[in-house]
Amino acid sequence: MDLSPEALRLAFIVAAVIVLWFTEALPLAVTALLGAVACVVAGVAPAKEVFRPFADPLIFLFIGSFLLAEAIRQHRLDRRLAYGVLSLPAVGERPVGILAAVVAVSVLISAFISNTVTAAMMMAIVTGILAAIEESATVSGVRPAARFATGLFLSIAFAASIGGLATPIGTPTNLIGLGFIRNQLGVSISFPGWCAISLPVVAILATILVMVMSRLFPAGVDRLEGVQDFVRGERTRLGRWTTGQKSTALAFGATVAMWVVPGVLLVVLGADHPASVWLRDRLPEGVAALIGAILLFLLPGDRGADGQTPRAMSWSHARIDWDIVLLYGGGLALGELCFSTGLAAAAGRQITGWIPHGPNAAAALVAVAAVVAVVTSEFTSNVASATMVVPIVIAMGQAVGVEPVAAALAATMAASLGFMMPVSSPCNAIVYGSGRIPLRAMMLSGAILDVIGWSVITTAMLVASGAFGR
Fold it and tell me: What is the pLDDT of residues 200-217, one digit of tens each?
């Protein structure tokens, strides 16, 4: 492999970063920063070029989304949604209905706020539900099988990871993949464009999740008494909508509208219409997220005990996951340098033997990309998996002469799977920490869902590949 001195030095740096990501010897964000610094010190590229991705527009989409998600959490809108769904008549007290409701709520919430926060919140809610069931069982004598609790907790983790695929902001891996696709392939996928592909995938995976978990972990009873009384009590404690909740809902609704309307007008009016051009140029997703976040600091919050009315969000209570922001910036910097130095192209040429040439090359690339991302995500973080796999997949596609957008999207989505191990994702670790999940149960159900997830994502990307050209 004939490499320039810069590419050779970069190869050693990338290899070291990958090892550190796999072993987690350092925090992931620190490793990303270390990789960027090493590139400057080693002379791979000037500091201005290396650190430019840290100011990528998607960074500000992260920041705005984190602030909106934190407001939703602080004002307990997520719990309103959760108990609202659980109280629906269709849910009732049937085990399958409760399982489906837990999955649906986890998916809906994780589509917009952190998968980890979703899993932690749903753990608290499901723990309360199970306590109510146990209390009722002491009176009625009808006690569900212990494995049903295992299935509920596992469903939280798996559904939170699946729900993260629904929107570009659902999980950082989505934005990482979209960043590489935009910067290296010149293809910008809008918020509605992503959702048009992801929502069918999420709906199918969520439905299959309910079917698999209800089969593997049945309750053994027809009715779980006490659930609806518990949910009604929790909804009563939430009380009426507060001013802060209304302001947060308004800011979030305005942001979603700014994300969706440009894509809708693009379809209705066409790409060359002045309105479409204006919105595309003046209101990208990152700017829309920042506008929504800024609204939180302007709209009123809940009146305090001192009679003062603060804003819906104060800077002292704002929480931004800077580790994810820095990890994204560092990973994107390394990815861009891999292309600018020729390292990615050389690596792609070396491993193109995995991909058969000819009419099936594109389909094979999508399948390989998805399986590599799934396997990688079992042993390292989903973010690190996407950062490592997506650039290589793009380079492989370019080496074999096929359009790599579908394969890059497949790798991006598949990086969010990794259901088998407690270390595969924070969601898995949270529910495993409950002490009610045998490792064998997680590995068995996780392996089944990994295979199903791989096949669903691969099929979806092959169906959607026509939209990206040959």
Answer: 999 999 999 999 999 999
